[in-house]
Amino acid sequence: MKYDSLPHLTLPKIGFGTWKIGGGSHADPKTDPVSLTALHTAIETGYTHFDTAEMYANGHSEELLGRAVRESQVKREAFFITSKVTPSHLRFDDVLKACEASLRRLQMDYIDLYLIHWPTAGMKLEDTFRALNELVRDGKVKHLGVSNFDLKQLKESQECSETPIITNQVPYSLADRSYVNNGMLEYCQKNDIFLTAYSPIEEGNLKKRAALESIAKARNATIYQIALAWVISQPRVITIPMSANPQHIRENFEAADIELTDNDCQILERIS
To answer: What is the domain range of residue 95?
Structure first.
């Protein structure tokens, strides 16, 4: 596994996303066996960064992740757990209650990284961060970040936060360069902030392209592995692909070991 570092924090280049673990927008207990198998496979494969949210399966994703961590018998400190507060819970008291609820579902004493999941029109970031800063001071949260924020909102968050904003989690893939075009990636790279790429392989719908397939064949890899390798080849970029397929879970993890040449990256940069 490759790693990337900020001052005082190092994370694996590839983590495990849990959207659709335990259900979609609502809990679906019928999927628990598949979801738990996916989580256990990820832990056994070597993933340590797991990304969840109170919004995922209406909290059931957090419950299953916490259960899988406990059942693994691996020390809690070996994991880096990210969760997120929903847009409807951004008032001061609601943030505190939302975090407590996430901790209960995870059955953990702290969350490593807590994100604002989405910005909302008219949100009062000073009020939200007053609560987030309190959670950090109380030891319930170790680090703070945001998700789906534009550059103006990210900068405002930095001004409100008592501790460094360590990430903005946004869509980023071969097909989606919107956060490159709007200056976000460059800003993060220059200001010690991770850009955490979600949907890095377009939720398994990666468009086949001759150049991509050629590079994959030369590396004895899948096109999805090459797409992931390209994303993480960039400084300050980490990613959190999700799969419930044990083979794909392992392949995603192994993508971190693929070494792309400068020529490979130049070819992939031209793909649209």
So the answer is: 3-203+236-243
Total of domains in the chain: 1
pTM of the model: 0.96
> Considering the domain boundaries, does residue 124 fall inside one?
yes
* Structure confidence by residue, pLDDT tens digits, 58-117: 999 999 999 999 999 999 999 999 999 999 999 999 999 999 999 999 999 999 999 999
Domain with residue 97: its CATH number is 3.20.20.100
Residue 149 lies in a domain: yes
Q: How far apart are CA 92 and CA 261, in angstroms?
A: 48
Would you say residue 31 lies in a domain? yes
Q: Residue 144, CB half-sphere, CA atoms under 13 Å: how many?
A: 25
Residue-by-residue DSSP string for the chain:
--EEEETTEEEESB-EE-TTTTBSSSB-GGGHHHHHHHHHHHHHHT--EEE--TTGGGGHHHHHHHHHHHHHT--GGG-EEEEEE-GGG-SHHHHHHHHHHHHHHHT-S-EEEEEE-S--TT--HHHHHHHHHHHHHTTSEEEEEEES--HHHHHHHHHH-SS-EEEEEEE-SSS--HHHHTSHHHHHHHTT-EEEEESTTGGGTPPP-HHHHHHHHHTT--HHHHHHHHHHTSTTEEE----S-HHHHHHHHHGGG----HHHHHHHHT--
Mark whether 56 is an active-site residue. yes
Q: Is residue 262 part of a domain?
A: no
- Which is catalytic among the residues 47, 56, 172, 224? 56
